[in-house]
Write a structure and sequence with these properties.
Length: 163
């Protein structure tokens, strides 16, 4: 069989497996995040499931393609955004009832009927977003250490050692 340079039959099998599992992992993780307030699971568990998709991309395509698909700087900014959203939702509780992370939407009467878990739903979403981006960032940073040429040494260092 002819493959691109550097790709073996074994890589094709791993790539096809990663391509097959990736959509299911993403949908299942997002499902756990979205329905975590009314079923077992939640933002943290769903966020970790979605973040492991970065590992599937790495296993199937290698670090270079994974780092193109998951930009580390974008992950870093979005992790901070998830934390800011969580804090803002918590401070809204302080503004209404003097307690951090109080479920204020549930206490608003008819508006609380529309969202059964109230503010907790949105806090779970923000936790899922933060964990998804944070664990994805950690995975990409750790996988970057495993990538060839990530030891911090350059070709010039190797030439000096040989001399």
């Amino acid at each position: 069989m002819k493959f691109k340079e550097g790709i073996t039959e074994k890589n094709v099998i791993v790539r096809c497996g990663a391509d097959s599992i990736l959509p299911f992992a993403l949908v299942f993780g997002l499902y756990i995040i979205l329905f975590g307030t009314i079923s077992p699971g939640g933002g943290f568990q769903g966020g970790v499931i979605v973040a492991v998709s970065a590992l599937l991309i790495y296993l199937g395509y290698g670090y270079n393609d994974a780092s193109k698909a998951l930009n580390i700087n974008v992950l870093r900014v979005n992790e901070s955004l998830g934390a800011v959203i969580y804090v803002i939702l918590g401070v809204i509780g302080v503004a209404f009832t003097a307690n951090f992370a109080t479920n204020i939407l549930y206490n608003l009467g008819s508006a609380g009927d529309l969202i059964s878990a109230g503010t907790i739903t949105f806090m779970s979403y923000s936790v899922g977003y933060k964990v998804m981006t944070g664990v994805g960032l950690l995975l990409m940073l750790m996988l970057g250490l495993l990538a060839p040429g990530s030891d911090g040494e350059t070709d010039e260092d190797d030439e000096e050692e040989e001399a």
